[in-house]
Design goal:
2 domains; binds S-adenosylmethionine; alpha/beta; Rossmann fold; single chain; about 10% strand
């Protein structure tokens, strides 16, 4: 990636952080305001909006923030570096939350005071076209939340058997018209690649 492209992505990311509105912020802060002192796991740290609100609402907790996305963790590390009040109160790790038990053992944390799972995609994942999650923005069919993953969505749609893809859409997307959706997806991907090739 050129340095111009990378700084364009960074400034896109910074403006996302500023305009980010976490869902049910007040309600979540209230829920965690009364949990006992100790560690609260934010299993889907994202831009850290919930984590910051919880730390403010409950001065007796520390947050262990997890995310599989490199950008989310880089942002969290910048947040910690720039805000002394977070030192000792916010720790972040780039892992999938299904490895939480192992991480808690590694950190010798025997019990936690609470956990938050805000499942879904984050606003930068949707809004930064290169991440490939958006229908609105023109970008590659990538969709990897963890950028270290080997398979992008384009690899999957172009290398799996059609029957496997129909199964994935039916099982995971609760989609009654899986075959029709798949045909549209494949057509869109072919058009996208044709357009890139024509450029
Ligand atoms: C809806 S956003 C969270 C927003 C966050 N609560 C905030 O206030 O900014 C979901 C985040 O969870 C992360 N995520 C999704 N599945 C994950 C998993 N299995 N393990 C770790 N992180 C995951 C995504 O990368 C994304 O950053």
């Amino acid at each position: 990636m050129t340095s111009e492209k990378s700084s364009e992505l960074n400034s896109q990311h910074e403006s996302q952080i500023r305009s980010h509105q976490p869902v049910m912020l007040e309600e979540i802060a209230q829920c965690f305001a009364t949990v006992p002192p100790g560690v609260v796991v934010d299993a889907t740290f994202g831009l850290g909006g919930h984590a910051k609100a919880i730390l403010k609402a409950n001065p007796s907790v520390q947050i262990l923030g997890l995310d599989q996305d490199a950008d989310a963790i880089a942002n969290a590390e910048r947040m910690i570096a720039n805000d002394a009040s977070l030192h000792g109160r916010l720790t972040v790790r780039r892992i999938r939350f299904d490895s939480l038990n192992t991480l808690l053992e590694e950190l010798s944390i025997k019990e936690i005071s609470g956990a938050l799972f805000d499942l879904g995609v984050s606003s930068p994942q949707l809004d930064i076209a290169q991440r490939g999650f958006s229908y609105r923005n023109d970008g590659p069919l990538d969709m990897r939340m963890d950028q270290r993953s080997e398979l992008s969505a384009a690899d999957v749609v172009n290398s799996y058997q059609e029957s496997e893809l129909v199964g994935i859409i039916t099982d995971n997307a609760d989609e009654r018209f899986a075959r029709r959706s798949l045909e549209r997806l494949l057509l869109l991907d072919r058009l996208r690649r044709l357009r890139i090739w024509l450029k």
